[in-house]
Structures are given as structure tokens and as C-alpha cells.
Amino acid sequence: MRAIQVSELGGPEVLRLVETGAPRPGPGEVAVDVLYAGVNFAEVKARSEGYRVRSLPFVPGLEVSGRVRELGAGVEGLAVGQEVAAMAEGGGYAEVAVVPAAAVFPVPEGVGPRTAATLPTVLPTAHALIHEVGRLQPGESVLVQGAAGGVGTAVGQLARLAGAGAVYGVVSSEAKAAYAREHGYDDAFLTDSFPEDVRRATGGRGVDLVLDPVGGRTLRQGLDALALFGRLVSYGNAGGEGPWQVGQPELYPAARSVAGFSVLSLAADAPEALRDLAGRAFALAANGSVKLPVTAEFPLAEAAEAHRLMEGRTSTGKLLLRVG
Fold it and tell me: Which of 15, 178, 191, 322 has the greatest number of beta carbons closer than 10 A?
């Protein structure tokens, strides 16, 4: 089979197309003939920094859509040939991927494989940020870092569906701000000026919920943008700064709180909770309530170009690799 392999950490050029044997599923695993693979920033960090990489060489890729090729021992509730979306622990940039059975989801009726590839990590993450972890209440305001990305696009729509009083985004360019406004956001602010813009937009009050995948200085600025009793959910460290810490001086004066979320950790530590979460999230895609636009698609052999686009900070929506 064909696969994209990384033998050394580095720039997009280390993503190399190779021919290798197709993997077989072990107990509790499923082999999937991949049609599409999602491209995520976590894979950029894996390629460049070794994020969540156990050893070299490795095949990146955290989410795929396709058809069940083979079932490992003990797997029930799935059938060979069934259309599925799946969250992988790596290995998605390949014609065959082996994934844990608990992270394989039947594709909802009416959802094609191209759309299905956008769902496994993005939509459950967005749902958890708004509901299970962020606990957004009708009338509350929310501020979303990375509003024009995959998760950000879904979050804007979910916040609106949840009855948010105001939905604000933070982006890196005016073009991305325009995109965010087209996908559920009342307004979008640029990275350099968002703390002042938020205070101006809220009359100095701040927002009730901040969603932050960046970390570091940006996270601390997000804390300062919270209203009384406000909540911040951290779900990444895309900025690459050192681990952040927060304590009494930042939280006590305005009764703020901080929570964290990782869909990959949930998949590893609480797979049944992930299945429940994914079911609720996928239902919104199936009925058309949430739409995640695919803004760029590349053949598998051009995975490096997809990474260059994502690293260039100009991409919006969801990027896909066409595999099958």
C-alpha cells in the first residue's frame, strides 16, 4: 500500500510517499480502507516536533473515512465493507489504517465519505468545548481563538445553536475574519489587538467563555478577557510556548475558572464517553445543523503541500487528503 512516512523530524519535505505492507488489526482493532484523511495542526506538530510520536519512522494522520477492511478479534457491531469515520492514533495518511474499534463510528446516513473525514476529531471537540466542558448557557458570550480553523468553524455554529448572546473569534488576518463572520461569528478580531477589541465589544465586561488552543501568552490574555465568573477551556498549545500555569492570583479576584480538554486523551482514557460524545456531535452533521467546509483537498502524494498551507496560517475550514 501507499503511505506517507516520516523518518526524521523537520519541515514538510520530510513527508515522503512510500510503498509498504498493509497493517493487520490486532484484538480490539479495525483495519480501514481509507478514502480520505483529515489534516490537523497536531500532525504538523508531530512532523516538526515529535508531538505524541512514540518512535521513528511513523505515519501521521489522526482521522480518516473509508470502509471497514478487516475486523480484529473481539470486535462487534461493525461489518466488513461498512462505511465508517475513525479517529486514529496515527497512521491515517495511508491506504490502510488500523484504528481502535472504540474510535470507529458508522457514517450517518446522508453523509458522504468526504464530509465524514472532517468529523472524527473536529466535531466532538467542538461539541465538548461548547457543551460538556464549556457549559455555555443561553445568552452568554464566547470568545474563540483560531475561529477560522476546523474546530473554530464548527464552534461558531454550535455556539449559535446553543443560544449564545454573542460569538466572537480571534484570527490572524482580515481574510480569516471575513470567513469567521460567514460561519456563525458576530465579529472577529485580529490576534494582536483582541484583548482591547473584546473589552470594547462588551462594554468592558468581558466574555463568559473563552476557548483557547494556543496556550502561553495568548491564554493569559484570554483569562484577562473573562467576565466575572467567566470560564476558560484550554484544548491545545499550538503556540509552542512552555507549559502554562495559573493559580490564585489570576482566578480568585473575578471568580474565574479554567478547564482542559483533549479528544485524543478522551479516546485513550474514556472511549465510551467519546462514543457518546461523537454520537451527539455527528447527529448535528447528519441533520445539517453544522457544516464544516472542505476548503482544500490534496492527493495523498501531496501531503507536504497540505502541511505548507496549514503552516502558512492562511488556511480556513478543513483540509483533506484524498487517499482512496
Answer: 15
